[in-house]
């Protein structure tokens, strides 16, 4: 059972925040069933002592033993739940239900060391108002050979109309239909000097009037020079054609567009472990994201559908919606574990950032523009100390014995 609290206090006319979370992770004595429950409350104090309180919860119940397993879960957050002062939250206002069933083996069988077949279904709603937003179901298969090479594949289906209440920025739903995606992955044994991770996915919509297609892949070779030194390179590529979404706003009206998006991420990371308590890590990462909109743009109707009858296009909306976004990070960190579960970590970050509308610029041109930007340097020091309840209890017990 855990109790967590974060607090952010700012000087001047800025908001303060406090978030408290209670979490319980319980398993019966036979280790056959597990229950996880979370309750979280956020308090954000704006100017003039205007405090907004939000709530979020999570509940999981499942069978965690045997070859056949199953679980049920529920996640909830109201419209005022907010943890971004000292955390990361992409959205609130959801009321989601899920179920999962799987079959797996734990003893080698034939050429397989293990495998797992999984099926799932989810039903999603808004917390306020309590309306349906979407559903999806699918499955996956993951296996590891007796040589410890692993592979798997997955399938996800979102049948019928799905209602996105957040893309419009004004609370109206944006409808898309019948999304299907599938993919697979392969990972060789990490105990070898050279190992390779491969991953790929494709997806499309089966919807009248839409020509949407997306694919992505990742290639990640890794070299383990010895037990101390590991280097990993990752190339991730994402391409989306015929995607539709929010582009800009004109006189308070959200403007949608059909776009082509391409994301390229390159990273190299190296870790040197001096001993089990001291680690030096260095990471280079370049992220490049471009979005190119088609000429004709859309407005969103109250029905959730898009129309071009408003006559908006990329020439008459007053601003260019195309995007060319890139970042470059160099992270150098040193971590020292000075006690069990306790760490002192020093981090130096060198960062470049660029955002413009040159969506047709080449990779090399965008990279040159990025390196023309001013460099941001950050140094941080983090102390994490683990308190063992049993040690505290023992110390208090000895103190009482001595005083008696």
Structure description:
The chain is mainly β and 404 residues long. The protein has a domain of 257 residues: Porin (Beta Barrel). It has a 19-stranded antiparallel sheet that branches. A hairpin with a 4-residue loop joins strand 8 and strand 9. The model has no long low-confidence stretch (mean pLDDT 94).
Q: Give the tally of β-strands.
A: 19
Helix/sheet category:
mainly beta
CATH architecture of the domain at 147-403: Beta Barrel
What is the highest CATH level, the class of the domain at 147-403? Answer: Mainly Beta
- Specify Rg, calculated over alpha carbons: 25 Å
User: How many strands, what sense, and barrel or not for the largest sheet?
Assistant: 19 strands, antiparallel
Look up the CATH topology of the domain at 147-403: Porin
Question: What does this entry show, briefly?
Answer:
This protein is mainly β and 404 residues long.
Topology:
Blueprint: E1 2-8, E2 16-27, E3 33-45, E4 51-63, E5 68-77, E6 94-104, E7 112-125, E8 132-145, E9 150-164, E10 174-187, E11 194-205, E12 213-224, E13 229-250, E14 253-275, E15 278-300, E16 306-307, E17 323-339, E18 342-356, H1 363-371, E19 376-384, H2 389-403
Antiparallel strand pairs: 1-2, 2-3, 3-4, 4-5, 5-6, 6-7, 7-8, 8-9, 9-10, 10-11, 11-12, 12-13, 13-14, 14-15, 15-16, 15-17, 17-18, 18-19
Throw out a few tags for this protein.
single chain; 404 residues; mainly beta; Porin; 19-stranded antiparallel β-sheet
């Amino acid at each position: 059972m855990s109790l967590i609290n974060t607090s952010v206090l700012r000087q001047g006319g800025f908001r303060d925040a406090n978030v408290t979370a209670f979490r319980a992770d319980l398993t019966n004595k036979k280790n056959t069933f597990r229950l996880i429950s979370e309750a979280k409350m956020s308090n954000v104090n704006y100017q003039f002592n205007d405090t907004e309180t939000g709530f979020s919860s999570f509940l999981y119940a499942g069978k965690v033993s045997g070859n056949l397993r199953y679980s049920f879960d529920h996640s909830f957050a109201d419209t005022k739940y907010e943890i971004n002062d000292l955390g990361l939250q992409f959205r609130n206002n959801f009321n989601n239900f899920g179920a999962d069933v799987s079959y797996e083996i734990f003893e080698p069988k034939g050429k397989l060391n293990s495998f797992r077949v999984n099926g799932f279904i989810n039903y999603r709603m808004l917390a306020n108002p309590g309306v349906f937003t979407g559903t999806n179901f699918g499955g996956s298969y993951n296996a590891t050979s007796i040589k410890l090479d692993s592979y798997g594949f997955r399938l996800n289906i979102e049948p019928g109309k799905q209602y996105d209440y957040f893309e419009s920025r004004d609370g109206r739903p944006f409808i898309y239909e019948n999304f299907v995606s599938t993919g697979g992955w392969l990972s060789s044994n990490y105990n070898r000097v050279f190992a390779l991770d491969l991953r790929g996915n494709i997806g499309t919509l089966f919807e009248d009037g839409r020509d949407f297609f997306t694919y992505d892949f990742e290639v990640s070779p890794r070299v383990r020079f010895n037990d101390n030194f590991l280097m990993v390179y990752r190339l991730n590529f994402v391409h989306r054609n015929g995607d539709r979404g929010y582009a800009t706003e004109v006189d308070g009206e959200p403007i949608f567009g059909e776009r082509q998006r391409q994301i390229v991420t390159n990273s190299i990371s190296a870790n040197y472990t001096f001993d089990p308590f001291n680690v030096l890590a260095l990471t280079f990462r370049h992220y490049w994201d471009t979005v190119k909109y088609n000429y004709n743009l859309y407005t969103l109707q109250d029905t959730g559908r898009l129309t071009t009858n408003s006559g908006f296009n990329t020439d008459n909306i007053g601003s260019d919606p195309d995007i060319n976004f890139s970042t470059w990070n160099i992270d150098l960190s040193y971590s020292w574990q000075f006690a069990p579960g306790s760490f002192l970590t020093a981090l130096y970050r060198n960062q470049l950032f660029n955002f413009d509308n040159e969506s047709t610029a080449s990779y090399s041109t965008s990279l040159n523009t990025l390196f023309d930007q001013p460099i941001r340097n950050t140094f941080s020091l983090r102390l994490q100390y683990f308190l063992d309840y049993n040690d505290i209890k023992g110390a208090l017990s000895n103190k009482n014995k001595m005083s008696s």
